């Protein structure tokens, strides 16, 4: 038992990491389900229109409401999808493993502190208001509970983890797919994961940016989202957070539903014993859905946005996103037509996915009708529509879990119990969400801890009853799988237990190379180490935060410094005791470090491709913050003008010298790379030293000279909306310059040991890519703040 535990704690094998993801997702599913049951029982036990009575406390109800939504979406669903993809994608494309095995393990272990932070927030429910799963200000900025900060930390860590996971899947599918498998012949599940991963890379950084902005407002008084009475120059706008959240929130739905669609595509064609109809159309529609999903975020804000043009544009885009979804449904139904369908439990779950998805899609078509949306917004009709889709995702995951269960365990589940659980989940879910929709049409608002009027009370009571049926079905399903894992009937042919390998692509395509899976404890140590890291950050904020001053357990700032320093020390130890050591051993190999033979042929770069996708996520992060500043300039026009009165001169000799130094470093970096390609290592190190010296001058000038000088003129964060955006974005850029300097230092070390060589320059070229990106961002920031381009913008209303 001890050996097995150590194996799972140190594994870098995608198969076992996928199992860990699924186990953690089940834990979060149960916890989020308990939260949902608490909410339903609260409403059922509270007379209509009356205050909530103990033990069903109204404040506690809102905390469960918040954690139910966040737990189901960001924890259960994301982890279940990542788990299924870890297990299936390498097998379906003939890859030896994930592209970054150790980073893949780190991504999972980062989900553990995210889970701990989110659910531990419930311990502080009596200290202040909850914030809802959408995190809307002003509740999220004025709540006095540290539980809100724990939720935000969990969101940031989970978002970082999922972004790394998305990049990892993109690289795995594009770099490690067997060369004889063409893209358009690739598994439909792999296609859906590829599309969802692109959304992860571009949609999750905006959420992290919003969470960071909330933390800055809560503890440093940087009002991005809330007005300041009597001080328009320092006031923010709460609608900005809605834009940020839903720019993430709507693609997030497709991050979850696309892999579920891929699972449905895989299982349906096998259980129907017929290759999927319109194979290419199903694959391309996944990319189309991912692309259009970014153009529909504002339909969640029709009651907040008054302008006619954006409303119409978002309504049209909302209708358009239904087209590729309809393509999938048509092709699934066409696949069933004429097939020899096996109505086993996996197929029943997949067919019910179609039912729930179609009904959820049809109810969603109501929302682009703006006048109707204004009536239905924030009612139970929205909950009904959303839960149809979310339950459809759960049906896809459950059906795939049953289908692949004999593959994974070598044992059969109990078919009869699986059918009973399917029936209970179907009846309970469909009735619950239909009643939600009906109550919404009658005007029942969401987020209430009691039925507002007697006429909708029977609907809420019935919802609670059917939710119990739904929960019983889920419990029976998990109990069936758990019992079958130990006592199920053995499978005769584990490679093809269903006898359907000839339909579509096989479930397992053997790789051309085999990975070396050595135990590695560092991902576990660094991942779980983010728990003290997060508490350390809050500890450093305690002395300046009016909210955190009341929490003695955060102790003194010395604890924060120790926690952060220990985490950095562990990171350095991982680098030198593991990564650097591995590089020295593999310096003579012309391949990726985790494979025994040279990397498979591909037109994609190695580390260059990796860093390119990292840069894509960074563009989304900076794009969110910079566009937020321009939004504030336009929407808070008078307040921004008031702030201009106290704006000091930003173009100074030190800012000009800093900028020239940073931009010049792009030239020295390019010359360093050219010397490296020519084999002139002496010249490479000389120009690299010049590059790093210029970068150090920039960072030192910014933090040691420019910031103190601006503070001397009264320009500090919290004093104005301009100062808030300036310090937030410019400081973030300075942090990226430091990251770039560390990147260059690591490249120099790896060149010194011979891992990167002129005939394998990927590390040097990747560092140059990142450095050029950092310099390009500074061009945009210099023009925006220092030249003052943002100050010259005049909104249309002001021109009139």
Plain-language structure description:
70% of the residues lie in helices and 0% in strands. By secondary structure, it is an all-alpha fold. It has a domain of 183 residues: Cytochrome c oxidase, subunit III, four-helix bundle (Four Helix Bundle (Hemerythrin (Met), subunit A)). It starts with a helix and ends with a helix. InterPro entries: Cyt_c_oxase-like_su1_dom (IPR023616), Cyt_c_oxase-like_su1_sf (IPR036927), Cyt_C_Oxase_1 (IPR000883), Cyt_c_Oxase_su1_BS (IPR023615), Cyt_c_oxidase-like_su3 (IPR000298), Cyt_c_oxidase_su3-like_sf (IPR035973), Cyt_c_oxidase_su3_a-hlx (IPR013833). Belongs to the heme-copper respiratory oxidase family. It catalyses: 4 Fe(II)-[cytochrome c] + O2 + 8 H(+)(in) = 4 Fe(III)-[cytochrome c] + 2 H2O + 4 H(+)(out). Pathway: Energy metabolism; oxidative phosphorylation.
Radius of gyration: 27 Å
What is the CATH topology classification name of the domain at 617-799?
A: Four Helix Bundle (Hemerythrin (Met), subunit A)
Q: Examine the secondary-structure arrangement and name the CATH architecture of the domain at 617-799.
A: Up-down Bundle
What gross morphology would you assign? globular
Poorly predicted runs are 52-56, 590-605
Biggest sheet layout: none
Tally the helices.
Answer: 26
CATH class of the domain at 617-799: Mainly Alpha
Distance between the termini: 75 Å
Strand content: under 5%
Q: If you average the pLDDT, what whole number results?
A: 88
Pathway: Energy metabolism; oxidative phosphorylation
EC number: 7.1.1.9
Catalytic activity: 4 Fe(II)-[cytochrome c] + O2 + 8 H(+)(in) = 4 Fe(III)-[cytochrome c] + 2 H2O + 4 H(+)(out)
Family: Belongs to the heme-copper respiratory oxidase family.
